[in-house]
Amino acid sequence: MMRRLYHIPLSPFARKVRLCLAEKMLEFELIVEKVARRRPEFLAMNPAGKVPVLVESDGLVVAESSAICEYLDEVYAAPGLIGSDPIDRAETRRLVAWFDLKLGREVTANLVFEKVIKRLEGLGPPDTTAIRVGRQNIGRHLEYISYLAERRRWLGGDVFGLADIAAAAHLSCLDYLGDVPWAVHPLAKDWYVRIKSRPSFRPLLLDRLPEMMPAAHYDNLDF
Amino acid sequence: MMRRLYHIPLSPFARKVRLCLAEKMLEFELIVEKVARRRPEFLAMNPAGKVPVLVESDGLVVAESSAICEYLDEVYAAPGLIGSDPIDRAETRRLVAWFDLKLGREVTANLVFEKVIKRLEGLGPPDTTAIRVGRQNIGRHLEYISYLAERRRWLGGDVFGLADIAAAAHLSCLDYLGDVPWAVHPLAKDWYVRIKSRPSFRPLLLDRLPEMMPAAHYDNLDF
Q1: Which residues does B contribute to its contact with A (CB < 8 Å)?
Q2: What region, left, alpha or beta, does residue B45 occupy, with left being phi > 0 and alpha being psi -120 to 50 degrees?
């Protein structure tokens, strides 16, 4: 049986795992899970009821994006995505938590959840206050990415890795919605242009939501 | 210079790191950080402005509790707290995320933030709706702990580790407030009694907030 990843197209956490798998050249099949249905078979795999969930070809189930990425880096070591010494690894993990938890809560949840997930899952109209808050918060995060990108080759240090992947997973969802003010953050844009041209990123640029086209520049490598 | 940990007494994330340090027999000095003051020197160590922050004796700064625990397990390997093979490690990390993120958001944030942090940091009166929601949610988490404790020696598997530490870090804060209905969850209670008697737990049981005594059984090993 082929390796499977349960996901939803604009889940930044599922996108993070898709990028890890692709960077490690691991083949997998994508399955869209309607998490709001709370399918018993899905809850048995992940009692938290969330995507992503990875099922290896031998049936091993791994749930929770942070656990999946660490698992993939331990089992399929090349290329390493977390860093080589404990200090670099701590910095990568600090940044992954920053993007997944802080940017995730302050920006992505406000914009992607309100504009996309609520519609796809039939959870009612978007909360316009949340959308305004998300748009206000994104600038500070793009400034932080610019700050890092000015001082380091990649966000976590000299080597491309999970900090870049986590940040790009969130920003790619926001970029689908046209909510990233790239023009006023050129250093963050330069970093994202470099990420966008990686082969691992191509499948994400081909994602299309039903009845909701991406921003015009979404899949343009020279936007 | 002695190793330092910046914390606040009822931060479950700081308690998780305190337990890791103590299980590994590493000495450290605790420093209370008033995070709401946003001290520039503290923000320079952790731009997220949160505890815990670990400063090693050589000055190395490690921020974000998940990154600190992984760092400690890599640098001070014995006793290992995450597991020995990648599958056990993935299960430990899944549970740590469950307790830190799901129980953290559904229960601890509602109770500890509203009842303690708001008062200590002068952030206004508690939101009684949030407190009611937190009390409603805790039962389901104690059921999950009971479910795990019935099937495994420790929550993550055969060996005491970070899943137990993360769960106990949250529950010990809630127990200080008297908000854990132990009597109706005897399996979870049995597990907590075993944790509570570990030497690493003793310093947590000695914590006292200003003008807010703990529940009567808080530091009782045979409650």
Answers
A1: 47-48, 60, 62-64, 66-68, 70-71, 74-75, 86-87, 89-91, 93-94, 97-98, 101-102, 144
A2: alpha
